[in-house]
Design brief:
Elements: E1 6-11, E2 13-18, H1 26-33, H2 35-41, E3 45-47, E4 53-55, E5 63-65, H3 72-99, E6 104-109, E7 122-129, H4 134-147, H5 149-152, E8 156-158, E9 167-169, E10 179-182, E11 190-193, E12 205-210, H6 219-238, H7 250-258, E13 266-268, E14 274-276, H8 277-295, H9 302-318, H10 329-344, H11 351-360, H12 369-375, H13 385-393, H14 401-413, E15 418-420, E16 424-427, E17 435-436, H15 446-453, H16 458-461, E18 462-464, H17 467-471, E19 483-485
Helix pairs in contact: 3-6, 3-13, 4-6, 4-7, 4-8, 6-8, 6-9, 8-9, 10-11
The structure holds adenosine-5'-triphosphate (ATP) and magnesium ion.
Amino acid sequence: MERRVFGVETEFGLTHLGRERRGLPPDEVARYLFRPVVDWGRSSNVFIPNASRLYLDVGSHPEYATAECDDLLDLIASDRAGELIMHDLALRAEEALERDGFDGSLYLLKNNVDSRGNSYGSHENYLIPRATHFRRLSTVLLPFLVTRQVIAGAGHVLQSSDERAAHFAFSQRADHMWEGISSATTRSRPIINTRDEPHADAGIHRRLHVIVGDSNMSETTQLLRFGATDLVLRMIEAGVPVGDYELENPIGAIRHISHDITGTAAVRIRGGQELTAVEIQTGLLEKAKTFIARHGAHHEHVEKILELWERTLEAVRSGDHSLVDQEIDWAIKKRLVDEVAQRHGVGYDHPKLEQIDMAYHDVRPDRGLFHLLRRRGRAASLLSEERIRAAMMDPPATTRAAVRGHFLSTARAYGAEHTVDWVHHKLVDRPLEALMIKDPFVVEDERIEALLDKLGDRASQLRELSVEEREAQGVPLALSERYTLTADRPHSDPPVI
Ligand SMILES: Nc1ncnc2c1ncn2[C@@H]1O[C@H](COP(=O)(O)OP(=O)(O)OP(=O)(O)O)[C@@H](O)[C@H]1O
Ligand SMILES: [Mg+2]
């Protein structure tokens, strides 16, 4: 595909530590966290003005799903905005908890395993042509995803078990995957989920749902993760030969690879050959380089992605992790963990190191260890704070998210009850005029404008609020109103006779 739509869903871990007493259980804390969301949207499943989705299912892992993005930096900005939105909610929840007599600290972690061993996800969504051959997904994409952890894993301090001693692994998620490709999400947790919900024209497109990834803190790692996956998909879509790396046992392989930080663990390819993760990734990288040399770069970050991909593989191959220890999560984290281990003369089985692993993912900017490292110049970034803050409020401009954001903001300004999802737009008073946008690349829609026109004369009545005005609203920034009505509400109460 020339242009592709991307989206990431992040589930967060939540812990409340009481100052004197035990903290509240996570599901209760999650309800506190989502109180402003429910007040704002009367539901714990809402689309917010930046066109992304906030969602609290039963249980305790609040989720943020980015709006549809067709630009990788927009995608990373929207995902990072999600962290700040959750952080904003966490600060308010902490205050509310305190008011109710539950003093203590709330920890919101963008990671994939809690201290009790539960796993939660970071799901990627890629728009792909319906015609993409399923077989190529299992022969090329699956081995790519199984081995991708060596370039994009978040790193993990694994405690000792019956089978092995405590050690540092590439991935948090690898030990929690149970199947290669399947339509189930929770029970068997597959690497690629085939549940067919394209949120697009099902005759043309599919939404590829990848649920194997680790949540990343590092923006550069995210660029590599999404960018390299996009490149592999492009080669699959173009039908070019990419080599056959179909794995004999993808789930055995993903664990085996994760647990061997030297990158030398070999996995068996169907047919008997044995290859290491670095060899498989190098094979795919070389094909991608050739593909780009022949077809040209399709966006401005391709060169950077290829360069970082190569350098990361070199870091694993040579054992010289300093090649990427500011850009790739597992290497940034490992350097920190190793320094602490050395300073205290302890091994990976020491609880302190497990704590550091967790604290790396703390989204709180003034407490999280990743953020601390970034401030100290030990972790690279790609985006300015302004861009991330803007992404908390504004939808991406180049996909239908722009229409959704505009629809939502306008309907709210008029106090008109409405419902939206990825595809639908409806004013509750006009149920017969519900509108669908199946093409995710649409950025304007006359039908929606006409529907919104029925709310009143927008040109003279709506005034866009400045960021300062929106900040002054006393609600989380992501939930602030974008417009105010300059005239009286057109739908005022009916006259009393
Ligand atoms: N046509 C599309 N192609 C690719 N991604 C899409 C498309 N439409 C929406 N997306 C993205 O897919 C993600 C959908 O997230 P959502 O959590 O709603 O889906 P889900 O995981 O299938 O549902 P649930 O979490 O309820 O099981 C979002 O990040 C969104 O931006
Ligand atoms: Mg989801």
